[in-house]
Amino acid sequence: MTQPVRDLVAAAGRLLTPPPGTPPGTPPGTPPALTPGLRARAAAALLRLALDEAMDDFWRSTSPGMVHSRGRTKALCLEWYASPSVARRWYVLWSALSAACHHHTYELPPTPAEVRAWHADVTELLRAMPSETAAVRP
User: Fold this and answer.
1) Tens digit of pLDDT for each residue in 48-78?
2) Which residue in 26, 41, 78, 120 could disulfide with 22, CB within 3.0 to 4.6 Å?
C-alpha cells in the first residue's frame, strides 16, 4: 500500500516540529518519547519514501515498466523527460536521504536542521517534477 506523496512530506514535517512542552501529568524528568536524532532519521526516511513514490507515480504515467527499475536508473532516465537540473536534484536528494536513513556505528544521525533543509528541498523538487501526481500542494 502506498501513501500519497503529500501525506509523507507532511508527516516528515510533523516529526521535525518538536511537541510543545510535555503532556499534562508527565512526571518531571521523564525523557521525551523520541529524541531529536531519532525524529530526524524517521523524517529522512519519510522524505526518501516520498521521493520514491513521486518517481514511481511519474513512471507509472510515462513508462510503466520503469517502475521496477532501480533509483539510479530512474534518475538517469528522468533526464530525457524533465530538465537535467531536476533529475540531478532528485538524485542528489535521494542519495543524501538514503545515506541518512541507514544507521552506521561511527556516524552521527542527521541533525534536525539538515533534515529541515532536505524537507524544503524535497517540497520544492516535487513541485518541479513533470508529473501532476508528484506535485505537493499545501
Assistant:
1) 999 999 999 998 888 888 889 888 888 888 8
2) 26
**Is 85 within 8 Å of 46 (Cβ atoms)?**
no
> In the structure grid, which three cell numbers stand for residue 28, read together?
518531571
Question: Looking only at Cα atoms, what is the longest distance across the chain?
Answer: 58
Three-class SS string for the chain?
Answer: CCCCHHHHHHHHHHHHCCCCCCCCCCCCCCCCCCCHHHHHHHHHHHHHHHHHHHHHHHHHHHCHHHHHCCHHHHHHHHCCCCCHHHHHHHHHHHHHHHHHHCCCCCCCCCCHHHHHHHHHHHHHHHHHCCCHHHCCCC
CA angle 101-102-108, nearest 5°? 90
**Helices 5-16/112-128 angle, 10° precision:** 160
In whole angstroms, how far apart are CA 15 and each of 55, 115, 118? 23, 10, 13
CA distances, 22 to each of 18, 28, 31, 33 (Å): 10, 9, 10, 10
Amino acid at 42: A
